[in-house]
Design brief:
heterodimer; A: 323 residues; alpha/beta; Rossmann fold; three-stranded antiparallel beta sheet; 9 helices; 12 strands; B: 443 residues; alpha+beta; Immunoglobulin-like; 3 domains; six-stranded antiparallel beta sheet; five-stranded antiparallel beta sheet; 28% helix; globular
């Protein structure tokens, strides 16, 4: 009885310091899918429970979650545009509406390509550290957050979004280290289509290269990119240069080769680090056919394949990881 | 490359002990130690509030290794809030923070414009990027070019762009391509309809292997604002093929203010505070940052990035370099402040809404339906500066080694804890397994 009284007192006092956060109700699990660069001609903007834009290959399997498709104008707007339907505006509104623990909401984010640029921009500029928004995971598939050399070359003939997808603009728009304690788990994708990979993306020769990356020229150089973005972007590296693998700054990893803070690969964590082993319940990837390269922490799929892998991984992961 | 494997079992052991410690701290019901803490809570309610708030969550006995990843979100957040969000350790690997105005240069192919036009035509017709490139015939040799910029952002009308263009052979060791530049001009931001902004003066070194372009915004006018493209048209000697090389940069001819170069330092609660003088011209939501270097160690020490509203009434902005970071990294002696930068948001609503969008979500949601008619670039900077300031000498003991604490971050930790607890559901685990296997869920 005394313990019950103490617990009641404590709960009541706890309530006083966080008046908006109810413990009576379970958290609702919302899964936000944020698409990348795409022709928005017939797109409606905002948050939808169906894939009105028909961007994704499907919907993630969920036991008790609610899937929302976040649709922004990733064609005629820049990812950091604070006016709707720009990326910053639509995503900020979506997160505030669906990821607020004051409303008993918790979010899982699956972003693809420029959708990751828009989401990271939102997060880095928000006061996530100290507000009631609750984000469990960010699965960043083929992230364009570090920009693309294709945009460097061809943004002039593209659309407004392309001006913001250059390496210079993407990396200068916000502090990529400032994820405010939210970990971004990247799907670094390496399946190349020979011509763009060799023409535009950085490469390197030497030993220990990623065999999944494109072999270019006569020097044996490997250029690691998925046809649209290079690993420097998809893996969250802080230099726009040639990288052969993903690294991590998620504890206990302390990559010193240049990865933005709070960025790592899907999936790494203290317990399993994605590699399985005795007593390890997290041995992702959880789905088959992702073409995971365990040595380099990359996926041998093309740019669109990254989105498919993220959906497959969410679907196949245990409930406790991806509800 | 194989961090994961190297750390292997040590990692697992470390993780288990770490998580156990976390649970001991966050779940008072989990251990005798925790039971004592519960009593403490009852006796000293104001201090016990936070710890007690975790009580309704799961107990340690309910948590298996399978809960590790949700908990790791909490672990990461907990690591983050060890220091204040605006004060972060700065190390040599933080290349981007150490070079706040720079971005790596890319080496790109010199593709004749007739070919890029063909590719673009196919792209517009809906042909995929890679397919479009397969559909054209590229020259046997494609020389390369590389733009090195002194800055990726021009802040103010006195800040000059220096872009060095280097031509390189198709294969390493080959002769440098002979290039004739016929035009160099600027094109403005797509938000303003990509206006032509005129010619750019340049000079080439002997052999034309390297050319330098210089430009600064002639006036604080909108057409010079946003993404500006430097477009260089050329041809290879002996070829009629036109080549176009482009390099974009961001220009902010209008500025929200400037740093004055005046500084004052003080110790406050065991942290070093440096007030940097400012003249603010516009009231805006800004990210104001600076770097601190340890002069004695010759190492970067801290990066501070404040998220605040700047206002014309302000005379200085305080940068707080957190005491515990100095202690944890063993930095003492004299320090140098540099890399002062302020990046502000071009908003069409009050900056308070941006800083606390959760509190103003209804207003922001309402704006979604009526965006402004004209598009504009998103960033405005303070004038570029190269000020630096050297502090007096500090001994380690002058800095506090207290961790940062705030009610908000403690509340968020509690939320993470609660969220992880709610995911420990064997029945939902089974349900998801059945769903992903395409089976009818068990009744």
């Amino acid at each position: 009885m005394r313990a019950l009284a103490i617990a009641t007192l404590c709960a009541a006092l706890g309530w006083l310091i966080s008046p908006g956060i109810s413990q009576a109700q379970s958290l609702t699990h919302n899964i936000l899918l944020i698409h990348g660069r795409s022709d928005s001609s017939n797109e409606q903007f905002g948050v939808f429970t169906t894939d009105q834009h028909q961007y994704w290959s499907g919907s993630p399997v969920t036991a008790d979650g609610h899937v929302y498709f976040v649709q922004w104008d990733a064609w005629n707007r820049k990812f950091d545009d604070t006016t709707c339907p720009g990326g910053q505006c639509i995503i900020q509104n979506a997160v505030n509406a669906l990821c607020d623990a004051n409303n008993n909401q918790e979010c899982w984010i699956i972003c693809h390509s420029a959708g990751c640029s828009a989401f990271e921009n939102y997060l880095a500029k928000s006061n996530y550290c100290c507000n009631s928004i609750l984000i469990a995971h960010v699965m960043a598939a083929s992230s364009a957050a570090g920009g693309s050399e294709i945009a460097n070359t061809l943004s002039w003939v593209g659309h407004t979004i392309d001006q913001s997808l250059t390496t210079g603009y993407s990396r200068g728009a916000y502090n990529h280290n400032n994820m405010q304690g939210v970990v971004v788990r990247g799907f670094g994708t390496t399946h190349n289509t020979t011509i763009p990979a060799c023409l535009f993306f950085p490469g390197q020769s030497g030993s220990g290269l990623n065999p999944d990356c494109n072999l270019c020229g006569l020097t044996g150089a490997r250029h690691c990119a998925d046809g649209a973005v290079a690993l420097h972007s998809t893996c969250g590296h802080n230099r726009a240069a040639s990288f052969q693998d993903c690294n991590s700054t998620l504890a206990p990893h302390t990559d010193t080769a240049g990865t933005y803070s709070f960025h790592g690969w899907w999936i790494t964590d203290h317990e399993c680090n994605a590699l399985g082993g005795t007593g390890c319940n997290w041995s992702g990837p959880f789905s088959s056919g992702t073409n995971w390269n365990a040595s380099f922490k990359t996926y041998n799929v093309d740019h669109g394949g990254g989105a498919n892998d993220a959906l497959a991984e969410y679907s196949a992961a245990p409930y406790a990881l991806c509800p | 490359m194989s961090n994961a494997r190297k750390h292997g079992r040590t990692l697992l052991r470390w993780a288990k002990s770490r998580l156990a410690a976390l649970f001991a701290e966050l779940k008072p019901s989990a251990s005798p130690w925790a039971r004592k803490k519960r009593g403490f809570c009852a006796r000293v309610p104001l201090i016990g509030l936070v710890a007690c708030y975790a009580l309704p969550a799961v107990s340690a006995a309910q948590v298996s290794e399978g809960d590790a990843t949700p908990l790791n979100s909490m672990v990461a957040y907990r690591e983050f809030i060890k220091y204040p969000p605006e004060s972060r350790p700065l190390v040599g690997a933080n290349w981007d923070l150490l070079n706040p105005w720079s971005v790596d240069a890319a080496t790109l192919p010199m593709i004749p414009t007739r070919i890029t036009a063909q590719v673009e035509s196919m792209r517009r017709a809906g042909v995929a990027e890679d397919e479009a490139w397969r559909g054209v015939t590229l020259p046997a040799a494609l020389p390369k070019y590389r733009f090195e910029l002194n800055t990726a952002v021009l802040a103010g009308t006195r800040h000059e762009l220096k872009a060095t263009l280097t031509f390189m052979p198709d294969q390493a060791g080959g002769p440098a391509p002979q290039v004739n530049i016929t035009r160099a001009e600027l094109v403005g931001d797509a938000d303003f309809g990509s206006p032509a902004l005129g010619a750019v003066p340049y000079s080439c070194q002997a052999g034309n292997a390297t050319c330098t372009f210089r430009w600064r915004a002639p006036a604080a006018r909108k057409e010079y604002w946003g993404v500006i493209n430097l477009v260089v048209t050329a041809n290879l000697v002996g070829s009629t093929d036109e080549l176009v090389m482009r390099q974009s940069f961001y220009s902010s001819p209008m500025t929200a203010g400037k740093f004055t170069g005046q500084f004052q330092e003080r110790l406050e609660n065991g942290s070093l505070v440096i007030d940097a003088g400012v003249n603010v011209t516009s009231r805006m939501a800004c990210f104001v940052s600076s770097n601190l270097y340890s002069i004695d160690k010759g190492l970067p020490s801290q990066h501070v990035e404040r998220r605040l509203i700047v206002d014309p009434s302000m005379r200085s902005i305080a940068f707080t370099f957190f005491g515990k970071i100095f202690r944890d990294y063993g930095h003492e002696g004299t320090f140098r402040l540099q890399d002062l930068k302020a990046q502000c948001e071009n908003l069409h609503y009050p900056p308070e809404w941006f800083l606390d969008s959760v509190a103003h979500k209804a207003e922001l949601q309402a704006l979604q339906a009526r965006p402004p008619a004209a598009k504009e670039p998103s960033r405005i900077y303070f004038d570029y500066n190269d000020y630096s300031y050297t502090t007096r000498k500090y001994s380690s003991s002058e800095f506090s080694d207290r961790e940062w604490q705030s009610a908000e971050s403690t509340r968020k930790l509690t939320l993470y804890n609660r969220a992880a607890g709610e995911l420990a559901s064997p029945s939902l685990e089974t349900l998801k397994k059945e769903l992903r296997q395409g089976r009818e869920p068990s009744p």
